[in-house]
Design brief:
The chain contains 13 helices and 20 strands. It is of the alpha/beta class.
Length: 450
């Protein structure tokens, strides 16, 4: 596909999602909690499977069914969740902040440092933090204004009795309505039911003025924002989108459960959300990035960045080899493979890394170890390519699925896009700070939100 064909398909998919959400709303589907209405194309979700079925047609049907069944089976792993906290008085706090956490985020003194908001929990003493521990780690010591949501280990990976009971509950909840059961009998919807119940309980015990979340429009986030209004309509719901927008970002199309205010970095990013994804302008505020500031931004040159999910190893290897073949001798700085920090090292991922390293050896004459590290290669679905551009890094983007992963200059008018093969693109910025603007310091929450 050439760049024009890619753009047409991107516009078509955005339009398709808008129409689908409208149909679901008319059919009284709980859009906020539906896994089929969460169109995050970078993962193996029912919504992303639906997008690919629309794009590829009937030839994708077996993969579509496989993803749906996988998400149903994964419900059986949603057991043993609990909340760890101190005896606290929720009414002592004005703000309720929801974020993800892992072991490295907890400090020895009992505080927590949030990598997305770039602030320490002790600097927000009037805020209660609800932390979803993605690696199930619970520190031995943590402050009183921290609530930890975690999952204890189970002897069996799958609990099929839990799966059956969850299905029976869904039957009763939706009064045997097949369309409603289909939309919510999936991993993300059921996880949403579990975590949102815990969060809403804590919210109901306090007198909070604001609820803030590092927002990605996941079902549990939209469900909490929607349901908290039943507790207190005056609570202001705030979402913070912590990175740059993806090329089409269909998961962020405005829908039920959207926050009262969405904070996003970059003026053109705000324009994109309003023009293409139906967001009312008054609900979006463009701010400097909390996550990326001029003090903490890492040097991004000299790497090959792997995505969280790898869909086609063969395509990645073919495109990388074609890029090296076309490159001049000693024209590329030394490249180090950098795996995604949260990805599982599967066989497919190991083979991808191994084959990339082999190609670097085979085409070693293309590299110059003394050359300034100013070029990086980004693979698959990633918005890091935009962060790199803002850091003045030359970027090469190898896409597994260009319709979902490549930026188009017709949609992103502040970018120059050069397509050098069917799946490989080179980007340059026309306007600095338009897609993501680096912050000036840490702890910007107080200034821009509270």
């Amino acid at each position: 596909m050439n760049s024009y064909e890619i753009w047409k398909k991107q516009i078509g998919l955005i339009s398709y999602v808008k129409k689908y959400l409208k149909l679901c709303k008319g059919a009284n589907i709980n859009i906020a909690n539906s896994s089929f209405c969460y169109f995050a194309h970078w993962g193996f979700f029912p919504g992303s499977a639906k997008l690919r079925l629309k794009l590829h047609g009937i030839k994708y049907i077996f993969s579509y069914i496989k993803i749906i069944l996988f998400n149903i089976l994964s419900i059986s792993k949603l057991t043993n969740y609990s909340v760890k906290k101190h005896n606290i008085e929720q009414t002592a706090y004005k703000n309720f902040i929801i974020s993800n956490a892992s072991k490295n985020d907890f400090k020895k003194n009992g505080s927590y440092f949030d990598p997305y908001f770039q602030t320490n929990s002790r600097k927000m003493s009037n805020s209660l933090w609800f932390l979803n521990c993605v690696d199930d780690y619970v520190p031995g010591k943590f402050d009183k204004n921290i609530i930890i949501f975690t999952r204890s280990k189970s002897f069996f990976k799958y609990n099929f009795l839990f799966l059956i009971i969850t299905f029976l509950k869904a039957l009763l909840k939706f009064k045997f309505s097949l369309k409603n059961i289909i939309h919510e009998f999936s991993f993300d919807s059921q996880f949403s039911n579990i975590i949102s119940k815990k969060i809403l309980y804590e919210l109901s015990k306090g007198k909070f003025q604001n609820i803030l979340n590092s927002y990605e429009a996941q079902p549990f986030q939209n469900t909490i924002f929607k349901e908290v209004k039943k507790i207190d309509k005056k609570i202001k719901t705030i979402g913070y989108f912590h990175t740059a927008l993806a090329p089409i970002n269909t998961s962020l199309i405005f829908k039920s459960g959207a926050p009262d205010l969405l904070l996003i970095s970059g003026k053109y990013s705000k324009f994109f959300l309003c023009k293409y994804l139906n967001w009312p302008s008054k609900k979006i505020q463009a701010v400097p990035s909390f996550r990326y500031n001029k003090k903490n931004i890492l040097k991004m040159g000299g790497y090959i960045y792997l995505p969280f999910n790898i869909f086609s190893r063969k395509k990645i290897i073919l495109e990388f080899e074609n890029f090296l073949k076309k490159s001049r001798v000693r024209s590329i700085n030394k490249l180090i493979i950098k795996d995604h920090p949260f990805a599982t090292l599967t066989y497919e991922r190991k083979k991808t890394i191994e084959e990339l390293k082999n190609l670097i050896v085979i085409y070693k004459t293309r590299f110059d170890s003394n050359k300034k590290k100013n070029l990086s290669i980004f693979i698959g679905a990633t918005s890091s390519v935009i962060v790199a551009l803002e850091s003045n890094i030359e970027t090469v983007h190898i896409c597994e699925e260009p319709v979902f992963e490549s930026y188009s200059s017709k949609l992103w008018k502040t970018l120059k896009v050069k397509q050098i093969s069917s799946n490989t693109f080179i980007y340059k910025q026309k306007v600095k700070n338009s897609l993501i603007k680096f912050g000036l310091n840490d702890n910007m929450l107080q200034k821009y939100i509270f």
